[in-house]
Amino acid sequence: MNAIVRRSTDTNTIKWGASIIQVFGYAATAFGLAPLNMYLFLIGMFGWLIVGLRWNDMAMTTIHVVALSAMVVGLALA
C-alpha cells in the first residue's frame, strides 16, 4: 500500500512541476524569450510524458511523444 501511495505522490509532484514549468514557458513566449520558452516546454512535456506512462494513458503518452519529437526536430533545424 505504501508503494502505491508513494508512486501516486511522486506522480502528482511530477504533474504539478511539469504544469508550472509549462506556465513559465507560456510566459516566456509572451515576453518573446525564445528559445528559453521552447526549453521550458520541452521539460514540461517530458514531465507530462512520464505522467502519461505512469498512468498507462496511451492518449496522453502519444500526444507528448509527438509534441516532444516535433519540438526536438524544430530546435535541431533552427
The computed structural class is mainly alpha
Q: Please tell me how large the radius of gyration is.
A: 14 Å
Strand segment count: 0
Percentage beta strand:
under 5%
> Whole-Å distance between the termini?
48 Å
Oligomer: single chain
Give the topology string: H per helix, E per strand: HHH
Number of structural domains:
1
Structure description:
By secondary structure, this protein is mainly alpha-helical. It has one domain (17-77). The chain is built from three helices and no strands. It has helices at residues 2-30, 36-54, 58-77. Helix 1 (2-30) packs antiparallel against helix 2 and helix 2 packs antiparallel against helix 3. The termini are far apart.
Give me the secondary-structure topology:
Elements: H1 2-30, H2 36-54, H3 58-77
Q: What is shown here, in short?
A:
The chain has 78 residues and is mainly alpha-helical. Helices cover 87% and strands 0% of the residues.
